[in-house]
Write a structure and sequence with these properties.
The chain is an all-alpha fold. The protein has 2 domains: 8-208, Growth Hormone, Chain: A (Up-down Bundle), CATH 1.20.1250.20; 227-423, Growth Hormone, Chain: A, CATH 1.20.1250.20. Helices cover 83% and strands 0% of the residues. The protein is built from 19 helices and no strands. It starts with 8 loop residues before the first helix and ends with a helix.
């Protein structure tokens, strides 16, 4: 096999700016998770019952997920017709502005019911933005780099999204260590949002230096852009690719939500870990997942995304089985090492985007990726935690059975992907 072409300086610059912007935008989206309960207390009436308070907390949080498909499909439509770069910049503007506004908004005590309404609108805007950002980033970078370097490019880019989660976790830890509970409730909770908004505008400025993708410019010159509604073409002519993309996205969702975001609650609530230790383990696992994304990209450029997805899903299933069954039975240091291996293996999710880039033709690529990813993430993101919590009623390691299920689905889906798209 010939050596894959190296990334040029321009390719590295594009990849670096795109990854940095993606990390900052994902930080803006997930920072709400770390302060959802506190924000609910500040932006809703204090007279609410615990049930309604919890419903409001998760309802506002879920609004960001439910509006992802709308933002993704609409922005992808124009991205396939007028260019990737413009929508790539718009998505970060739509994220930075509401994040900054959440940090500056008055609470229920000051403006009454206008506070939760404004909060909901800001969260909806964030959902629309993230729905366009991630497919835009995958499409934009993949159309800039040489074809045989798409794997490593997507691995680095997806690692950047994981970096956004890590930044959110570290910022939350920094605030908790440096401010008292009254200070946090009074004003310090605003700091992560204000900084997130400022960082977003910095990322928007940096993206002004990016150029339109060569693939889109070539289609524009040859008048090969989509002649009808791009998403209509996706649903009419690319059903198999769409379903495969959605099932792969389910795997990605499970690895992020169950293995990363929800893990501290499991370790603390069911197995007695100190919360600070659980968050340190989570941060280390995110770093390992980032490394795994990059390794998966290198392997995919050499062996293909199908083989990497197949091997990765089997590895996640194996290590998850060992990890969950070790909880409560081995030393914390052993749990830590197993969790690091689980984080590393979950880096396979970095190749979900690679597979979708390969499945959809350039004319409708943005729309195809966006529809598959956002619809699946909205559904899976909405049902994953309630389903895992239900399974946990029957077993402390109920999450394992969910992970095994999505790994099995991913293995079966990969066989179809390889047969149809990696001949």
């Amino acid at each position: 096999m010939d050596a894959a072409p190296r990334l040029s300086r321009a390719d590295k610059r594009t990849l670096g700016l795109s990854s940095l912007g993606g990390a900052l935008e994902f930080y803006d989206f997930v920072i709400y998770v770390f302060y959802a309960k506190l924000i609910s207390e500040l932006f809703f009436p204090s007279t609410l019952s615990p049930f309604w308070a919890m419903l409001n907390t998760y309802g506002i949080f879920a609004a960001g997920y439910f509006f992802r498909p709308l933002g993704g499909v609409v922005m992808a439509h124009f991205g396939d017709l007028i260019g990737r770069k413009r929508l790539f910049s718009l998505s970060i503007l739509l994220m930075a502005l509401p994040t900054l506004m959440i940090g500056l908004m008055p609470t229920f005590e000051s403006i009454g019911y206008a506070a939760p309404i404004l909060l909901l609108l800001m969260r909806m805007m964030q959902g629309i933005a993230i729905g366009g950002e991630i497919p835009a980033a995958w499409t934009f970078v993949s159309e800039h780099v040489p074809e045989r370097r798409i794997g490593i490019a997507n691995g680095v880019l997806t690692a950047g999204l994981s970096l956004g989660i890590l930044l959110g976790a570290l910022m939350s830890l920094f605030i908790s260590l440096n401010f008292s509970e009254p200070e946090i409730k009074d004003w310090a909770w605003r700091i992560p949002f204000i900084l997130g908004g400022v960082f977003g505008f910095v990322a928007l400025y940096l993206r002004s230096y990016l150029k339109e993708t060569p693939v889109f410019k070539a289609m524009q010159a040859k008048k090969e852009l989509a002649k009808e509604l791009p998403v209509k073409q996706v649903l009419a002519n690319h059903k198999t690719a769409t379903v495969i993309g959605m099932l792969f996205t389910w795997f990605l969702t499970g690895c992020v939500v169950v293995l990363i975001l929800a893990m501290p609650n499991l370790l603390v609530g069911a197995f007695g870990f100190e919360r600070s230790d659980a968050f340190k383990m989570q941060s280390a696992a995110i770093v390992m997942q980032m490394i795994g994304c990059i390794l998966a990209g290198l392997l995919a450029d050499r062996f293909g995304a199908g083989k990497v997805m197949l091997f990765g899903a089997l590895l996640v299933a194996l290590i998850a089985g060992i990890f969950y069954n070790s909880l409560g039975h081995v030393a914390p240091s052993t749990v830590f090492m197993l969790y690091m291996l689980l984080g590393l293996s979950s880096g396979t999710v970095g190749m979900v985007s690679y597979s979708m880039v390969k499945m959809f033709p350039a004319q409708i690529r943005f729309s195809g990726i966006s529809f598959s990813y956002n619809v699946a993430y909205a559904i899976a993101g909405g049902i994953t935690l309630p389903l895992v919590q239900w399974l946990s009623l029957y077993s402390n390691i109920g999450a394992l059975y969910y992970i095994w299920t999505i790994c099995l689905v991913t293995v079966l889906t990969t066989f179809v992907y390889r047969a149809k798209f990696e001949k």
